[in-house]
Amino acid sequence: MPVTVYGPALSTYVRTVRVTLEEKGVPYELKQLNFMGGEHKQPAHLARQPFGYVPAFEHDGFPLYETAAITRYVDRAFPGPKLQPGDVKALARMDQIIAIIDSYGYPSLISKLVIERLVAPMTGRSADEAAIAQAMPRVKLSLAELDRLAAGGEFLAGAALSLADIHLAPIFFYLTQTPEAASLLDPHRKLRTWWSAMEKRPSMTSTPPQF
């Protein structure tokens, strides 16, 4: 029952799928795409993901895209530890946190702060300070809400690892590489406690981004 993930190892969403598979103990093949070279916009990938984003996924001939759909499918389709809480309120909190990440966290934390601070220098341009300043209110609000909603221990949504943790962790990895990280996280004790545990998990240490 082969599992294939299509996308670059540098992508947070690709890493989320990989961490999910690692936590479930599912063997998989990562087929890297040259994201910087635009391979995700070429016909071969558009046949897998018509909108030209990553990741795309296939299991035993069944294709799928959209990270939240893929991670839920993996949790349901394979044995191993359950990554979605059985308690209805904890499950709702997990869903809420994932929605916050997708709707507000990623666009401000990654598409603005991380892109400008970490990716721009790699492409030979200076960070757009105005874009960072414009994103900061949403960055701070996203972190404040995630901290407020977090369970307050090693995990975000209840007493065990869930997809909420797995969706946020790759984003947090990049956030902590920015010069703003210390001041942004200083007010948020629960998120700092969570990250100190999450970053050490084998599923995280075995899936580093590659540039």
Q: How does this model look, in words?
A:
By secondary structure, the protein is of the alpha+beta class. The chain folds into 2 domains: 3-77, 3-Layer(aba) Sandwich (Glutaredoxin); 88-205, Glutathione S-transferase Yfyf (Class Pi), Chain A, domain 2 (Up-down Bundle). The protein has helices at residues 12-24, 43-46, 67-77, 88-122, 129-149, 163-175, 181-185, 189-198, 202-205, and strands at residues 3-6, 29-31, 56-59, 62-65. It has a 4-stranded mixed beta sheet with strand order 2-1-3-4, covered by helices on one side. β3 (56-59) and β4 (62-65) form a beta hairpin. The longest helix is centred in the middle third of the chain and has 35 residues, at 88-122. It starts with a strand and ends in a 6-residue tail after the last helix.
CATH class of the largest domain: Mainly Alpha
Helical segment count: 9
Beta strand %: 5-15%
Radius of gyration: 17 Å
Task: Give the N-terminus to C-terminus distance in angstroms.
Answer: 29 Å
Total strand count, please? 4
Arrangement of strands in the largest sheet? 2-1-3-4
Low-confidence stretches: none
Number of domains: 2
Q: Level of helix content?
A: 40-55%
Provide the CATH architecture of the largest domain.
Answer: Up-down Bundle
Structural class assignment: alpha+beta
Average pLDDT, all residues? 95
- Note the main sheet: 4 strands, mixed
SSE topology string: EHEHEEHHHHHHH
- Per the principal axes of the C-alpha atoms, what is the gross shape? globular
Q: Can you tell me the CATH topology of the largest domain?
A: Glutathione S-transferase Yfyf (Class Pi), Chain A, domain 2
